[in-house]
């Protein structure tokens, strides 16, 4: 008797999207022969922005392919690092973060990544801004990743900001420019001399801290201070993570070999 099912082999990195009761690599799906691969994969619970190369009976296939009963499909996760189309002059992807990812947003800005974030945006508005500004939408909402109109999205793994950041850096291995962006508003920092911003600093700060920048949008002054060590640790770990992600990448997929460029706004702090 003919095999009525399509057999899918789902990559380990994608199993988290399957319901716990069906969380295994081997999947059988009934089909009428008119469903697309993309539809079948989504029906398992896996959002398409998380899916990488597909094969059908060993040959590369597109999500729009209509498999027939008896065929074997392999479903890979997106490659890491995942290439993102950049516009001329753009050195790293831009991002837009879903409403619950505020801590991650501040850390990404610390690393110089252009990161838009609002704590009060609904799903349609997120998609509109992400598409209009060619930003990668980062979310933990799988429904949002299923929206057909979305240009590029990615699921953020883990609930811990440390792990979320590492996941993001391993996935995109973006070029970092630490200490160049306002963590509060995402504005770019411009060089600021100490005497220029003295009014904004308390006496203790003025004596013992180095000013390194001022936000060109909101005016916030940034200096290396009591919390600098913690932030420096986050930056150092991020730089290492990106370097490792790029080193582990197949040739030609990771872009420039160095993970850090010198900042344009910081002064004298390296
Ligand atoms: Zn700012």
Could you explain the architecture of this structure?
- The protein is an alpha/beta fold and 270 residues long.
- The protein folds into 2 domains: 5-77, Beta-grasp domain (Ubiquitin-like (UB roll)), CATH 3.10.20; 94-183 and 226-269, no CATH class.
- The chain is 26% helix and 20% strand.
- Strands 2-1-5-3-4 form a 5-stranded mixed beta sheet, with no helix packed on it.
- Strand 3 and strand 4 form a beta hairpin.
- The longest helix has 21 residues, at 228-248.
- The radius of gyration is 22 Å and the shape is elongated.
- Residues 182, 184-185, 187, 215, 217-218, 220 line the site of zinc ion.
Please give a handful of descriptors for the protein shown.
single chain; 270 residues; alpha/beta; Ubiquitin-like (UB roll); 2 domains; four-stranded parallel sheet; 26% helix; 20% strand; binds zinc ion
């Amino acid at each position: 008797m003919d095999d009525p099912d399509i057999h899918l082999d789902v990559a380990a990195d994608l199993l988290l999207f399957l319901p716990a009761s069906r969380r295994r690599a081997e999947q059988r799906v009934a089909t009428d022969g008119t469903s697309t691969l993309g539809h079948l994969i989504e029906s398992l619970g896996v959002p398409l922005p998380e899916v990488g190369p597909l094969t059908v009976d060993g040959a590369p296939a597109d999500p729009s392919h209509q498999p027939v009963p008896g065929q074997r499909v392999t479903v890979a996760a997106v490659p890491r690092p995942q290439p993102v189309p950049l516009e001329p002059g753009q050195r790293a992807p831009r991002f837009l973060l879903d409403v619950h990812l505020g801590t991650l947003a501040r850390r990404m800005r610390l690393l110089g990544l252009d990161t838009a974030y609002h704590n009060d945006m609904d799903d349609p508005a997120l998609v509109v801004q992400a598409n209009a500004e060619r930003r990668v939408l980062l979310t933990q909402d799988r429904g949002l990743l299923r929206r057909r109109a979305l240009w590029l999205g990615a699921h953020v793994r883990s609930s811990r900001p440390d792990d979320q950041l590492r996941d993001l850096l391993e996935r995109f291995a973006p070029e970092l420019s630490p200490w160049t962006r306002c963590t509060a508003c995402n504005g770019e920092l411009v060089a600021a001399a100490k005497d220029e911003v003295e009014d904004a600093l308390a006496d203790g700060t003025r004596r013992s801290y180095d000013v390194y920048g001022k936000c060109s949008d909101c005016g916030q002054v940034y200096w290396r201070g009591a919390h600098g060590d913690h932030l420096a640790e986050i930056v150092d770990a991020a730089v290492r993570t990106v370097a490792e992600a790029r080193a582990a990448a197949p040739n030609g997929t990771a872009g420039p070999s160095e993970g850090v460029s010198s900042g344009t706004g910081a002064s004298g702090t390296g």
